[in-house]
Design a protein that fits this description.
Residues 56-152 form the Fatty acyl-CoA reductase C-terminal domain. The chain has helices at 15-28, 46-70, 77-96, 104-112, 118-121, 131-149, 158-167; strands at residues 2-4, 123-125. The chain is mainly alpha-helical and 169 residues long. The protein has a two-stranded parallel ribbon. The termini are far apart.
Length: 169
């Protein structure tokens, strides 16, 4: 089964919607090794973005990396933040503009597949989905990220989640 998440003009997902969903996921299921609770400030002004990046990211990273150097440990935050900054600059054009993916041919192709072949070759359109279905989809993606990229076990314990959230408020 193939999944088609680009559903043209019928469903529009904004960056703001994705950010709110990410904040909800972070609150409901925090990572086990967070330094602080993440916060997102959106701006279209590059100068304000740069000042916020310096104030909220680079200065704390310099402080933490300095403390790591003093304790004879390898500093790492500046290197990570540099990569994040470069990725943000590369993706800013795509985040600042609206995009509509035309997929009329994929939908027409899906309609022309024989009924008996739809299980193997059909295109299942993920949209329209309810908010809870979208949340569940991203929750599964977060679990996979924790397990396969961060090599951690996902902690579902409610007491743990509440402790992490209280410590990061």
């Amino acid at each position: 089964m193939m999944y088609n998440a680009a559903f043209g003009k019928s469903v529009r997902v904004t960056l703001e919607t994705l950010i709110k969903l990410g904040q909800r996921l972070t609150w409901d299921c925090p990572y086990s090794k967070m330094l602080w609770y993440p916060n997102i400030l959106m701006t279209h002004n590059w100068y304000i973005f740069y000042m916020q990046f310096l104030l909220f990211h680079m200065f704390p990273a310099l402080l933490i990396d300095g403390l790591l150097k003093l304790s004879w440990k390898k500093p790492m935050l500046i290197k990570i933040l540099r990569k994040i900054y470069i990725a943000n600059m590369a993706l800013s054009y795509f985040m600042d503009n609206s995009w509509t993916f035309v997929n009329a041919k994929a939908i027409a192709l899906s309609d022309s597949i024989l009924e008996r072949d739809k299980d193997n070759f059909g295109v299942k359109c993920l949209f329209p989905m309810h908010d809870e279905e979208i949340y569940a989809y991203y929750m599964h993606a977060k679990r996979a990220t924790v397990k396969y990229l961060f090599k951690e076990e996902f902690n579902f314990d409610v007491a743990y989640r509440n402790t992490v959230n209280q410590n990061n408020i």
